[in-house]
Each structure stands twice: as structure tokens, then as C-alpha cells.
Amino acid sequence: MSGQQQFRYTQTPSKVLHLRNLPWECTEEELVELCKPFGKIVNTKCNVGANRNQAFVEFVDQNQAISMVSYYASSSEPAQVRGKTVYIQYSNRQEIVNNKSSGDVAGNVLLVTIEGVEAGDVSIDVIHLVFSAFGFVHKIATFEKAAGFQALIQFTDSDTASSARNALDGRSIPRYLLPEHVGSCHLRISYSAHTDLNIKFQSHRSRDYTNPYLPVNPSAIEGTMQPILGPDGKKKEPESNVLLASIENMQYAVTVDVLHTVFSAFGTVQKIAIFDKNGGMQALVQYPDVMIAAVAKEALEGHCIYDGGYCSQ
């Protein structure tokens, strides 16, 4: 009886132990170092859970796992990794199966959690810039969940998505792409079960880069405002630091770089977003203040980007 009383666990003993509160990205070597005094480790599963601070360790024999749980249950010194107290309990599984969890099964859509930011701190254009370095991004959808600000990013195939995940997971978005008040933001990336995102319109929340005819939702685009009435009773465009430019008579390609060259002649251009609407092209150009935007609008409206009357604005 006395031997039984020291085990006050609701779980059935298992040769697989569940470890919690580990340091972020704890390595397999660190787990083995913690557990090897109690027996031989035959399998591990690291960095599981939403915060990647949990792991599973499988001993060759159940008695070895019981020995470890028993030791730390009665020891005055807790189990520690990198100075963090680690909580140990029996797993409800009897072995570690190497089948990958849904978040680890490679797919063409990534689920990205952007830590340390609010929804408005990282624009969809910045997300596109960062991830398109690894291949063509088909679609992006952003949203807010309990886990924070998140994005679904669809690539052509799982190989491209894997390249992006391997390169960016745990990294930070470059500081120069973030607002001044954001100290740092880290990317936590897993695979989504989605294979094709359903994007209904282009906005600052969602983009489909494969469908030029998808409608733009003006009310959802950052910086745009509803028209107001002027002194003459007619609708008047409110002054804003964001210009909406419609590009007509497009005989030559108009890229973000081309627009940046044209509009930066009047002041610092903070952001540019290009959309296709009803077969035509539109762009949002953001300046630091209303005055610069007003000067640029006055100078450029109705003028052409290229000689010969092509690509008028």
C-alpha cells in the first residue's frame, strides 16, 4: 500500500511521458539529456502544442517512465531545461506514432501566426512581400483569433510552401517593413488543412492574386473613406493621405516599382497596393500626410505614365 500511495495520478502509467512548459524550440538532445538517467529513450516528439513548449518522450520500458515520474514527484528539485521548470506526466498514448499531426502534414497552404502585433500593424502587402520571395503566392486571407493575428497563405504546391516555412518559421519580419511602434514580431508557421482558399473580394484583409476580375471591396480597403457633400451639394472626395488611382489605356506593364517612381516624386510613398477590377487596374498609394497626397493628385490626375498617351491616371 505504501508504495501505491506515492502515485496519486489519474492517468494510467505509460512508457510515453508528456512534458510541458519546455523552453521554446527545445531540442531532442535536451530532452534525452533530461531523461537518460532513468532509462533508454527510443523516440521523441518535440515542439508540439500551440506554443511549441511541449514534447513526448518514449522509454524502451514502462518501468523506466514510472521511475522518472516517481523521482520528480518526490524530489525537492524540479525537472529543469534551460532553467525552466518542466512538468512531467504520463501520456495517454502508449507509443509515439511517427504520423505527423495535421499542422505538420505538408500542404500548399500555410497557417501563419504573427506574434507581437495587432491586426493593423502588418499589412497584407508586407505579408505578400515576405512570402512571395519563395514562390508565387496565389491567395492570402488574414483574420484575428484567440492565438492572435493570423494569415492563410496559399502557394502553388507543398514544396514551395515547405521552403517558405523552413526559411521563415521562428523568424521576424524585417524591421523596416514594420511600423515604428512595433518592437518585433515573430512568425509561427504550420500547415493548414485547406488546399484552396475561398477569397470573395480584394481588400486589406484578403487577396486573390490569380483572379484579375475579382471585385474590390472599397469599404474594406485601408484608408478609403465614404464620399461627402461639398458646398455645392455634390459629392466631394474627402481629403486623405491615400490616393486611389485608376490606370487606363494600359499598353505597357505598370508595376509597383513603376508607380513608386511616379508617385515618390512628390514625397515619401509608404505603401502601394495594386488591384485588378473589371479588367482595369487600380492602385492605392499611401503618403505620410494629406498635403503630399493632395499635391500628387493635383499634379498627376489625367496625366500619362508613359510618353504617347499610354497608361493615363
TrEMBL record:
Residues 15-93 form the RRM domain. It is found in: Nucleus. Gene3D superfamilies: 3.30.70.330. One of its GO terms (cellular component) is P-body. Keywords: Acetylation, mRNA processing, Nucleus, Repeat, RNA-binding. GO terms for biological process: mRNA processing; regulation of alternative mRNA splicing, via spliceosome; regulation of translation; seed germination. Its main location: nucleus. The keyword Zinc-finger does not apply. It holds the Pfam family RRM_5. One of its GO terms (molecular function) is mRNA binding. Plays a role in pre-mRNA splicing. Binds to the polypyrimidine tract of introns. May promote the binding of U2 snRNP to pre-mRNA. This is RRM domain-containing protein. The lineage of its organism: Eukaryota, Viridiplantae, Streptophyta, Embryophyta, Tracheophyta.
